[in-house]
Amino acid sequence: MASLRRLVPPLLALALVTPAAASAHSSRYEADPLVIGHRGASGYRPEHTLEAYRLAAEQGADFIEPDLVITRDGVLVARHENEIGGTTDVADRPEFAARRTTKVIDGVSLTGFFTEDFTLAELKTLRAKERIPALRPQNTAYDGRFQVPTFQEVLDLRRQLSRELGRPIGVYPETKHPTYFASIGLPLEPPLVRTLRRNGLNRRNAPVFVQSFEVGNLRALNRRLRVPLVQLLGAKAAKPVGDSRTYAELATPAGLASIARYADGVGPTKDYVVPRNPDQSSAAPTTFVDDAHDAGLLVHPYTFRRENTFLPLELRSSADPAGIGDLEAEIRQFLALGVDGFFTDNPDIGDASTRATVAVIGDTPYGPAQLAEFPGDVDAINGDPGVGTVLHLGDIKSGSQRCTDEYFGQIRSAFDRFEDPLVFTPGDNEWTDCHRANNGGYLPTERLAKLREVFFDAPGETLGQEARRVRAQAGYPENVVFSESHVQFGTVHVVGSNDGAAPWFGDRPTGAETAEERALREAELTARRDANLRWIDQIFRRARAGGAAAVAIGIQADMWDGAPADQPSFASYKDKLAERSRAFGGPVLLLNGDSHQFYADAPLPGAPNLERVTVNGSTECPHEYLRLRLDPDGPDVFAYERVPLPSSARLCAT
């Protein structure tokens, strides 16, 4: 597998937009799915310890999640529950034996040791231990070694990790039992707000989410915090404290719409998205993710764990509850359903699951023989389990085929066969060169308008059965930006034939282009070039603002196929790419088709961090796709391999 060298460490993409239906301070993360270290890397260390949080970030988590309870002297600390008998060694401390008591917490009677009966100084004498040793016996090696951290210590660690790892690490606190704590005079909300404000984190775009199972305290926090809020959804038959509705009722479209008035996201248990059958196998997915997105809400389900007992039947490795199953497959299913992030005890597996693979094709189908084979090629790409997005670099026909409406419709139907999101940037064969007599003698600008009508009928959405939202340029819906695995992608409508500058109708029996047609061609070229240059700026601005690890840009034209003097329209693009790549500093990958033969080079001496790949296409053998693997944390952000397509075996036989 070839690779392109990674030059700088990635940063978490935090480009934000505001969903129309969400609360006043609402923010939506318009980036890759977030990996949230559930209580830290609790699959490998005792939960809610600084060591577990550190490991989570080192394994690739974007956010670390402390559950917050409070001490007798009003200090927020990180524990899964205020009852700490199962997560600390307090039961082995004779000096605290008298603290053992029975309390009713949210209607449930519990016997044990409770944080609100201890001062911070007393809690600091305790040591954490593994909560589920029967399932995670390896974690017991760390019992007795780590303290109970304060919320401030978690925030200090977050800041330190962000510096060390070169990317923002977010924090995702949960308020535990807020109504109960308020009833005993120890409300969680005031110290939470104070602590966030003191650390400069009560602001829009701060790397913070605040979550709760309760509705009332989120409504109150909505008036005091400027960071996104997340409504957790528990067991479907249960009710949030202080609310008459069940969680199942909150999960309906009407309930989600009500949540959107005070929160920005929902954190459902996994079964809201993919229920389980009685035998614990996976049932058919629900519409929950789409319903939540329709309400303007993010979806961050919980909890993804690698042990068999937490996995659906078909992903378990054995009957041993503690055995390790196929967690990555479960996470990938939820990612395919469109979740915006997920809580996991195993951030390393979660991070690996989000590593995207993009199938890149171009100059296909090229001629009647390839057109007949194209459905099989699409099926082959659909069958690649790693591929999550397909990028087509233009030229959906040969240079001698006619540019008819019927042909466009046929290709659109073929594109609809792709199961994954398909991003398509047009080539010269499907509009610029349609003036040729053997193409039908069309007016190219009319064909461009038709092309947009057929293939870009839903601006801001990709093609493919699992269409995804992208950001499209106003007036140029084929120019889009999207993010994959902390890599900023963009397409720019740059085509061959000197970017469409070649005169039209050179072989027309009635004569070459008229003055009016020339003016139309030049006006289109100038307007599109100006828009393209602005869009290149936009791609790099978004990469910089979002802390992207790298940039990948797809165009149709091979701007180095021929002498520069014969292709002056490409000069401004080369200059812009060189300028922006130098300023960005990180890896930049330019993908193009057009010249039909695979080639990889670094064509801009002034920007050595820009590398280019020309994909194989047209009737050149082998017929193939480029499997582009993204690894923002590895030494090579981009790695690729050339994968033959089924049509190659049939059309390239010697």
Helix percentage range: 25-40%
Tell me the number of structural domains.
Answer: 2
Overall structural class, as computed from helix and strand content, comes to: alpha/beta
Overall shape: it is elongated
DSSP summary: helix tally: 18
Share of β-strand residues: 15-25%
Mind describing the biggest β-sheet?
Answer: 7 strands, mixed
How far is the first residue's CA from the last residue's CA? 26 Å
Please characterize this protein's 3D structure.
This protein has two domains: 33-83 and 150-354, Alpha-Beta Barrel (TIM Barrel); 357-651, Purple Acid Phosphatase, chain A, domain 2. The radius of gyration is 28 Å and the shape is elongated. 50% of the residues are buried. The longest helix is centred in the last third of the chain and has 31 residues, at 515-545. The protein contains 18 helices and 28 strands. It has a seven-stranded mixed β-sheet. It has 654 residues and is α/β, with parallel strands linked by helices.
